Amino acid sequence: LPLTVLRMGNIWGPFSAPYTVGPISAIRAGVISVVNGGKHASNAIHVDNAVEAILLAVREAQAIGQIYHVTDSDELTWEQLYQPYADWIGAELKSIDFADIAKLAAAGADDVGFFADAWKNAVLPILKYSSFQANSTKSLGGLQKKLWKMTPESLRERCRKRVLDNPKTEYRPPALKVTQKVAKPPSADLLHVYGHGVCFSNKKLKEELGYEPRASHEECLAVTKAWAKSARHI
Q1: Alpha carbon distance 53, 214 (integer Å)
Q2: Section 105-117 average pLDDT
Q3: What distances in angstroms separate CA 23 from CA 17, 36, 45, 116, 194, one per listed residue?
Q4: Does CATH place domain 5-230 in 2.120.10?
Q5: Residues 220-232: pLDDT tens digits?
Q6: Whole-structure pTM over 0.85, yes or no?
């Protein structure tokens, strides 16, 4: 069986629960959002660029049997990712020193559950974003079209009724329903993710398959902000 493994970074952008929706809620609530000022590598990948990497791996026979790390940039930090969120809502991006994480854990900080469900946090954002793009652009793009054709007709009909058949000016997703308290700091495990110094380089993907992000960081922020406004997260 021909196989290519894509080790996706932290997927952010429209519909991303752990790296867009959750952080915006946490920043608004004034809880800790980064470690050591957010200077560590985020290993983040915007959903648009994640789709581009998937399509590239499908097209290139050279990718068969290989493993690739997929990120936007080796240099993208948590501060560069989360500071714009704070700016959008006029809030402060709060930080904690790495040395204080153990103290926070000892105090009983609860896990906010961002990583509880890989399907919800990784696959669904891409599928939902397809519907968002369908309502916002004339073209779904290669992968989105394939996903749409593979979707059962009953589900496609439900999507049409909820999104595609509604005029763009009238469609407005419901506001975010916060089902958990966000006033507490994130878990020690999540803070370790924010504070580690490991960088998962996309160098191999670039050199072997010619990967380049489909959209720049500024373009990714722009489309994410537009979606966040539409979804009433900001």
Answers
A1: 9
A2: 47
A3: 8, 16, 15, 16, 12
A4: no
A5: 999 999 999 999 9
A6: no
